[in-house]
Amino acid sequence: MRRKLAAGNWKMNGLRAALSEVELLAKAQPAPNCEVVLCPPATLVRSMAKVCVDNCVTIGAQDCHENSSGAHTGDISAEMLVDAGAEYVILGHSERREAYGESDETVRLKAKAAWAAGLSAIICVGESEEQRRATNTLDIIGGQLAGSIPDAATGENLVVAYEPIWAIGTGLVPSLGDIGEVHDFIRMRLERRFGEGVGRSVRVLYGGSMNPGNVDDIRRVPNVDGGLIGGASLKAADFSKIIAALAA
Ligand code: 13P
Question: For the structural domain made of 4-247, what CATH number should be given?
Fold first, then answer.
């Protein structure tokens, strides 16, 4: 059985004052059936990890560099994130693939660096609106999975997040059938490449306008093991509802 996962991606949001939301979340009743990960901007990783010490919220980051140290002005290594208290890192989010031209190859190198430092990688894949219209969504996803995930994947070091680009921050969500089709495909590809044991143990999250109103339907889709949640993870009240639904 894969444990459900609610991962909040705060993107470039949150000052120290926002730690009060995390305190609320950290005080809430633990949901043993659902792991909770919050991925704040790098500036808050340390302070959020301190707030969440000894409770059921784990901290992640939103990116790391593929090298462990060196002359890379402005970048942060996986080892630094671990040092600050992170246990997860989101890699290959479409916003980074688009804005920084991150290729599958770059994402794969970053995932290797994350694993070497002891982080679990949440690797994002997803099609654009044009690609979905051209009905080659599964080809796109298949290519991203093959190119972005290193060979040494396990159920512990890898989470895959399916995030259709057109659903991110738009309020649009694919039909449950379309979500199911992509999640089944991802599971099949994971099993084919890594074997049934590993393939079945990797969690596959859905992301893109997930909110307290739609999570209950989405979580029932086979092979959906949780969510990667942007806007609705910023407020403890909304995120707690999503966690409760995923844990049900
Ligand atoms: P929203 O939940 O705001 O649509 O963002 C999804 C996302 O990009 C999470 O990584």
Answer: 3.20.20.70
